[in-house]
Amino acid sequence: MQLGRPVFLKRLGTPGAEAFAVLFALESFARALLATVIPIQALRYLGDAGSVSAAFFTASLCALAASLGIPWLVRKTARRWVYSLGFLGLALAPTLFVVPMLEGFMAGMIVRAIGTVAVTVCLSLYILDFIAKKDLTRSEPMRLFYSAAAWCSGPFLGVWLGEHVGYEAPYLVSGGVALLALGYFWFLRITENPAVVQAAVPVPTPLAYVRRFFAQPRLRLAWVMTTGRNVWWVVFFIYVPVYAIETGLGPEVGGAVVSVGTGFLFLTPLTGRLVRREGIRRVFVVGYLLASAATFLVAMSGGHPWLGVAMIVCAALGMSAIDAGGNMLFLFAVRRNERSEMTTVYSTYRDVADIVPPGVFSILLRFFELPVVFVVGGGVTLALALLARRIHPRLGREARQPAAAGAPQAAG
Questions:
Q1: Closest to 130 (Cα-Cα) out of 406, 403, 331
Q2: Is residue 153, in this structure, part of any structural domain at all?
Q3: Residue 68's domain is classified under what CATH number?
Q4: Which of 37, 41, 160, 277 is buried most deeply by CB count within 10 Å?
Q5: Considering the entire predicted model, what is its pTM?
Q6: Do the Cβ atoms of 136 and 395 come closer than 8 Å?
Q7: Rg of the chain's alpha carbons, rounded to an integer?
Q8: CB 343 within 8 A of CB 125
Q9: Biggest distance spanned by C-alpha atoms of the chain
Q10: Is 189 contained in some domain?
Q11: Residues 6+ apart with CB under 8 A from 59
Q12: Residue 93's domain spans which residues?
């Protein structure tokens, strides 16, 4: 024990799997504190689930437009400045949320979405620089495990702070955590990998690297699978709090359900071992099938809201198993000299997943009741279960033996 502690602290002070996991956990906590608060506050401002969907659709559309300019911004400045601007956006957004006007609330949603995109793209690039591909099946579950406490406590804590301490409390705490993450990043003094920077080949326009990305089947499959996974989580984070309020369970129950569902991230070390033993394909197929069946049952729960809550939690269990290997499809497939551009295109999965469900549901909820959201969510996950059968059966398992034939080469 006395020898292990200094080694662990040394790892936290240098760029690597542990440091990136801490950065991701801090970023996750800053976002998790508002994950349930924002939909609830949007419902109070706008009055119905359809209008809430339209608000999220608008914010996500702005983030998508901004995200395609990130490679240009990285090349014109430096990745560390873009990463820092992302955290500053996550810190600024809460100050806009506390303005008691719908315009300020919408501005906060847009700034938060853009900041999240910048942080996500840059962290993925740093991981590719410093983590070897053969180590991804261990580092990615570690990263999610570190963030588990944030996603388990944040959604409920944010609602509780808003209800019992004050309206501004969750926003101020979220902004403070974002600044803490920014301070830790600069403490690490992370720089770009010179070999990667020199090898990168600039491309003329965003449209060119979008075409290049989707011309590669493995990248295309990774993007579709990850986008579909995030579509389900968008349904979970936006509409579970709305479900809790509309069925009479209350906002705190909604926050607690979101916390319990995301708390399954604590199981990522176990699911990471499953990926290494069974392969990504088998874990994905089983996880998506469980999530699909349970999400359909939420829509069928009728006048039994607690049954619906139980099914939501079961669906979250299936999706959390997929999260352990969620980004591996991309990380294994991306080429070294295309990291910046391809990571930016890949990261649009978050924006597309944020845009499509609110956009679709803003229309559907004008004609149907809230259960239609879970019918669509169940259909998406069922389609993903079928699509997951295209994943190569050895992917993920081959990382158990770094020297095995056909194993991916080191990332950096």
A1: 331
A2: yes
A3: 1.20.1250.20
A4: 37
A5: 0.68
A6: no
A7: 20
A8: yes
A9: 64
A10: yes
A11: 106, 109, 110, 112, 113, 354
A12: 4-400
